């Protein structure tokens, strides 16, 4: 229990009166100092009784929009608090977070209304895979003289266990004995049920889509290409900023408003919309072939905020670019003369060859490839602040260029001239549009 300023003033006055009574030997001053001490003690006893009455009547109910979340993803938590109201008491409630988890907003609290009820909303971001559980509730009680915080971690106040799935940054490629090909254990973001075409097997295709009848008939491997359930123009990609970099609230609100307006326009003109929310190379959420405005706005409201980036690209170069560099320098990579330039190129080529020989490949290019392969698109609209490392933007532009899809980058508000020129120099990117 912590005394507030008014109580400290009372104690100071009692100490001053007591000192004066001792010095002056005046009984009336003794009586005044003793009365102030009794008054403070009575207020403390009354505050404790009120606090225990509130805690004894407290009830907690929690719910989440999803009990299974990926590592680094977010779950929208709603905590409903109720207790017997006490006049003259201010109550605040907040949840006790599990270890290795963050919330957005960072310190989410709710003020209890005069009827004793409060609703707390926040996004829980678990950073470690496994099972996580909210460990209780902290209730802060305050009146004009005292305040106290009580952690309620018993069974009635704990609960809402979430299952967190690991989110790897790389996928593992392993050699198979039968076909001398490499099988990818990658999640397919979206695939329709209809077969669009049958073609010969290419290196890196998913073995689950092999057409065994055509393979047995022609004695070589064929795979089925699945068509998307419906054409979904355009694909709206929202690149969310890293939480470690401060972003003004007005700029973030402007970005979210622009994406929401773009999605509603696509719904009105095309009848459906697809949203792909990323934060660097981290996939936050995907919503495809959505025709309902409620789910679109709910997804944007729930996930469109700065994210905790578990994985970073750090100017990562895609595998096609590394192979092109090795072919471009040609014999310079194998020469060992004394020229610094040749030695530098040889060293870079060695690093690229070592990276290409690694059985671990980044997961983000596979996710983008499967997404674009599943949809018949003419246009991708990318919203981003284009700050920091842009390796994920380059990968998206490269994949769109390979598929022959137009990529329209957009940003909001004022932007540094250097950042704008860096985006405009990327291959496969149209002129950067700035939404005023």
Structure write-up:
The chain has 436 residues and is α+β, with helices and mostly antiparallel strands. Helix 8 runs parallel beside helix 9. The longest helix has 30 residues. It starts with a strand and ends with a strand.
- Average pLDDT over all residues: 78
% residues in beta strands: 25-35%
| Overall domain count | 4
CATH fold category name of the largest domain: Rossmann fold
Question: Judging by the overall fold, what is the CATH architecture of the largest domain?
Answer: 3-Layer(aba) Sandwich
* Cα distance spanning the termini: 52 Å
CATH classification class of the largest domain? Alpha Beta
- Enumerate how many helices there are, as a single number: 10
Silhouette: elongated
Runs with pLDDT <50, length 5+?
A: 1-6, 174-190
Strand order of the largest sheet: 19-18-17-21-22-23
Which oligomeric state applies? single chain
Structural class: alpha+beta
Approximately how much helix is present in the residues? 25-40%
Radius of gyration: 31 Å
Total beta-strand segments: 23
Biggest sheet: strands, sense, closure? 6 strands, mixed
